[in-house]
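Q: Sequence in, structure out?
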Amino acid sequence: MTAIVGILNKRGIAIAADSAVTFTNAIQEVAIQNKNEKVISVKDKVVNSGDKMLRLKDKQPVAVMIVGNSLLSKLPWDVIIRCYRKQNDSSGFSKLEDYVQHFKSFVDSEILSVYLKRDESFEENKRTILVFAGYGEDESYPSICKYEVTGITKLKLQWQPCRSATISDELESIIFTSGQSDIIDAIELGIQSDRIGVIRRKFQDLIDNLLTENMLDILKDKIDYSAIREEITDLITESERDHLRQHMEAIKHFDLQKMACLAENLIKATELHRKITYQQESVGGLIDLAVITREDGFQWLNRKSWYEPSKGGQYGKFGI
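A: Exactly. Output:
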């Protein structure tokens, strides 16, 4: 799995992605007790070397991030994106959505027809989410959008739009997440979602205990616990909204450096949580970090590379 973050305001976009990639290997084994019975052994391996953030084009301020399965059939998505960039780098479009549609057409016409069989499909757990971020040539403010690749039909990918957002005079800041965003959401809202149900249950237990201690058990059947739980949920929701409003109010004044710092630290918080709990450490490795502005385009701040900057080579472009 992975975690990616986009922070947007009127100045531009800061995007961050971790490097952890989970590979799942399902092996069929014949049980000793019954030779006709097949047992599926599923093993996961996490490596911290994935390229999940790429420039969609060199000369336009647009990036794409990969969440979930890193392969389209057996072809890596980052290879597909590099191939698209090499063949289509000079063309620009008026809106971010136009870049997305052009990329989708390229995959159907140039990739699927060459590398995939007509009847090929992929499983539910192998779906990919692609997040596009940047500016169209006619857009003054940045946008970000998320699509899920849900299947293949007659050598055409099936795309499901999930979420999109655009900075405007009414919406001046955005925190956009994908992948393992539970801790980031908790930081945004002030509480983890899985704790809300616990609070509701504990509140009911508290009322029952108070009635028992005061020998008022007869009143338990007269209490509308569902209404109480609904009221608690409304209070928590309002608290979350207020917490988020404060964050959004601050972020709309951030410069690019602060936005990038926030994006990076949200990824680090998720990684730390995985390390100190009994969860698979599926967020980790080096954090790729970049900013996008209308004037200066896509700029790397941190990124993985096989080359040291002082040694030349294609640092800043190799593989990305």
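The CA atoms of residues 65 and 253 lie 25 Å apart.
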